[in-house]
Amino acid sequence: MVPGCYLKPRLKSQKSDMRIAVDVMGGDHGCGVVIAGVKRALEENKDLSAIYLVGNKDEIHAALPPRGFRDHRVRVIHTTEVVGMCEKPVVALRKKTDSSIARAAELVSEGKADALVSLGNTGGIFAAGTFKIGRIAGVDRGCIATVMPRQESEFVLLDAGANVECKPMHLAQFAVMGSIYSHEVLGHENPRVGVLSIGTEEGKGNELTRETCRLCKKLNLNFIGNVEGHDLFKDHVDVVVCDGFVGNVVLKSLESLAVAMFSMLKRELMHSAQRQLGAYLAKGAFQSLRRRMDPEIYGGAPLLGFNGVVFKAHAAARERAVASAVRMTINAVKNQINQTIARDIAEANRILNLDKHENGGTPNA
Amino acid sequence: MVPGCYLKPRLKSQKSDMRIAVDVMGGDHGCGVVIAGVKRALEENKDLSAIYLVGNKDEIHAALPPRGFRDHRVRVIHTTEVVGMCEKPVVALRKKTDSSIARAAELVSEGKADALVSLGNTGGIFAAGTFKIGRIAGVDRGCIATVMPRQESEFVLLDAGANVECKPMHLAQFAVMGSIYSHEVLGHENPRVGVLSIGTEEGKGNELTRETCRLCKKLNLNFIGNVEGHDLFKDHVDVVVCDGFVGNVVLKSLESLAVAMFSMLKRELMHSAQRQLGAYLAKGAFQSLRRRMDPEIYGGAPLLGFNGVVFKAHAAARERAVASAVRMTINAVKNQINQTIARDIAEANRILNLDKHENGGTPNA
């Protein structure tokens, strides 16, 4: 069997009747930019059959154009509460039963929507996925998969923060889900999957990464073994697997550096009249790089493993980034990634359980 | 006691008679650029009383200007072996008794040199520190401290890869050593020390970071608690403490992104004649940013906790970066950081042992 080939055959039919619930309340810039992003997404995607704008109706109506959207696909779902950015997710979700994220998740769990997009508290979205929508059968842990840009394309890093302590079995499942996302949504033909470690040689790393490598080798992935930080932006790997502690620290550190570099470059360019003129002439280059690298523009993360597509857009996302989040979500729904995840996780679990029995049930699954 | 104040009073006398052993064999660009960097450092630093160029004498003499340095402070130490970049450090060090790194470390352990600078295999340098030079009394683990640039100054991240599995006690000692380095060598008045975690709130993180925070609070550090990736380049923290797995992954990921961003920017700037003209006019801005952010230019890492100052320069360092590595090393020797480390680690251990007894000897020290 060619590695990764059991991921290849797409489920033949693509879903065409798609309904998305958008929690419009979570972003840094108010619900206006979220609605503008949704409008753009609606114009681009004729396949969308319904978009639910979930949030406070007064704020939503104030942000709509005078006569609304003039689009019969838009429905407003009024809610009275919001899970704040600094709230403890699980507690807030339990207490605020009429929060926008809870209601949006309920639309998915009730089968009224196929997917959920939110700019809000990541922990809150994850908790809504776990407790309101529920996990796909066989998936032990949901995870956050961040899509990061590089020169020619992008790679997926997961888990980016949902699971601080992980077992090798969890990371192996993340590898399967990340590979499916990379293939089905990002279009990588045979995604190269690696475990993030401190060197590429076999055996480098800690107990978790070593055992994860051993398990991943048994799965039908295009598994390339350990990768290190230096590989990330070099087109060596498409799916980077790590625990949520490492993933979160790496993701935020990278975002911090990207923002700092733009700010330092800007300052350098303002240094003299000549540089300012140069910057003016080369403006397009900076804008293009920024569109590609600025986390507030490209940023977004699918939450994988739930019985519905869940997408977290960057809190600071504006119109373009929201539209892009909706677009990614549509791709995931259209290609029915959750059906593929259910099928491939079942197969992976079969192999991993066999391994567990062979090893006397001791290992770290 | 004001937090951090026991770090403040510098040892009154600064060392003035300094001798540095430079392993000239490890770099990517041959020993010529290392020697050119040493030459620059010698010109700048009249306090240096001796520089040992340790490596193959034929290669060294071929790289020297026709009449040598004309500097009586330069001495060549001939060695016949080199620890390669891909060799297993401890094995290679034991086998290659006449390697440049082993001989340079011996100059330190024999008291002939105060410090060691190398561009070679980081593991090899660390092993030479551990087995040839030895650790400062009271220091349980040596560590790699990377200095990273940000807008106005820089911060230290440690451990950057020497210790994959750490206990809270080790991280607490790294915090003390990092704080001293930040103060004595980088000139931060009252360095802010943080533990790298996945959120700034108390209690966020894993068992290791939570217990490290508890211990660090007891020490006389300017301890600010958890920091997250987003804080790194924001001038929120001067000393970032983590285990060697996380530190190595973060460091290499950041280096990878910095290089990728320069390469993507270059490509964008070549896109049209107008952008090329702009780039030409603003050239100074890019050069200046590059000098600041390119790991091959600024990169370098002191290895802390050894009975001698040990500095690892980037393998791809050229003249300027080598000179800068020697400059940092001189600062560390001049300010006698190891005497301060010995004193403050002894005090920290006293506090940590007291804590251990109070907690019934159970905790993770």
What does this structure look like?
The structure is a homodimer of 365-residue chains. In chain A, 46% of the residues lie in helices and 17% in strands. The model of chain A is unreliable at 1-9 (pLDDT under 50). In chain A, strands 3-2-1-4-11-10-5-6-9-7-8 form an eleven-stranded mixed sheet, sandwiched between helices. In chain A, helix 6 runs antiparallel to helix 13 (337-358). By secondary structure, chain A is an alpha/beta fold. Chains A and B meet through helix 8, helix 9 and helix 10 of A and helix 8, helix 9 and helix 10 of B.
Task: Give a nutshell description of this structure.
2 copies of one chain form a homodimer. The first copy, chain A, has 365 residues and is an alpha/beta fold.
Layout: helices, strands, pairs:
Two copies of one chain form a homodimer.
Chain A: E1 18-23, H1 31-44, E2 48-55, H2 57-63, E3 74-78, H3 89-95, H4 100-109, E4 115-118, H5 122-133, E5 143-149, E6 154-158, H6 168-184, E7 192-197, H7 207-218, E8 222-228, E9 239-241, H8 244-269, H9 273-281, H10 283-293, H11 295-298, E10 300-304, E11 309-313, H12 319-334, H13 337-358
Parallel strand pairs in A: 1-2, 1-4, 2-3, 4-11, 6-9, 7-8, 7-9
Antiparallel strand pairs in A: 5-6, 5-10, 10-11
Helix pairs in contact in A: 1-2, 1-12, 3-5, 4-5, 6-7, 6-13
Entry keywords:
Isopropylmalate Dehydrogenase; homodimer; globular; disordered N terminus; 11-stranded mixed β-sheet; 17% strand; 365 residues; 11 strands; alpha/beta; 13 helices
User: What is the CATH class of the largest domain in chain A?
Assistant: Alpha Beta
Bin the helical content of chain A. 40-55%
Order of helices and strands of chain A: EHEHEHHEHEEHEHEEHHHHEEHH
Per DSSP E runs of 2 or more residues, the count of β-strands of chain A stands at 11
The helix count of chain A comes to 13
